[in-house]
């Protein structure tokens, strides 16, 4: 009986240990990157356009898989219309006219692809490069922390007053819906703006919580891959691959979640303004926001952020690798069960954040796996992080620190066609999706 009890306890201990090890980083019983993602889109051939999209779409419209569509200039879905896109449809952004698609406030997009038949937005150039075309804008009726409502007219160089109204966003409905983006790829977006800066691959302004974002991949974007202003969005199973700017940027009082998502950075692709895997801020300039409104709040769970490099140590020494996460002042941020691998350092906090218990309670890192980072959590421009190390290094946070190559850390990161970035610990695959708790 005694031996049986001992064996039972050993079994329970092992099960508990396995469960604890399984839960960090992107998760899934199977590799959810299979079939719908593409990590080498330059080798893909999508055919020549057979239909043109231009101007305004003012009534319910459906795009069909049998056609290839050319997106010319700033295309707006207006007048509360719904744009439905069949699984497998290809939409090609025009290089010369900075093709972009904007779902205006009150309008809807239903881009509901399939794992085996994703919807693709890509470039029309023979040799494709980041920034070949604009990107996709969703403008909703949810709140932001700005004074009044906002506009993205500067992205479209809007002069016509009638068209200007199509660029407005913001309201009072945090639960509004702009539709569905599921099993969608956005390639080579991020056209440069005349006044500086770039389009984002997917730009979400004041988008509400009933909008669905699942299995969306943004690759080779010259701007931010995913940029969120205000609203309340839940992004799940998103992939940012080799972005020039930030992979995920949350700003202007958004109340959002980033769940089971992946960002892969290259040391050789980066904006001069600085690029991070994840940037969480409440404003760009204090003058543009109303401080009587709440700042940005983000919950990030089961997220994997990694630098893909053949010689990470050398790239770090050359200064090509920066921080993974930047947290700004007046924000609330919680990151848990996530992996940060190969950065210098893992996290930087805004220099204006005073390091005290009250502020650190608003910036949480727990059940983290910090791997191959030169330093973990620092305040901007301050090399002394002893207080932060003592705080986040407390055993109650269950944070783990390691040094290992990507090939040792992830199941199959070197596979060009079907990479698997789930965490490899004792050859145990990460936990199932239904183990993810939601707030």
TrEMBL record:
<protein>
    <recommendedName>
        <fullName>T9SS C-terminal target domain-containing protein</fullName>
    </recommendedName>
</protein>
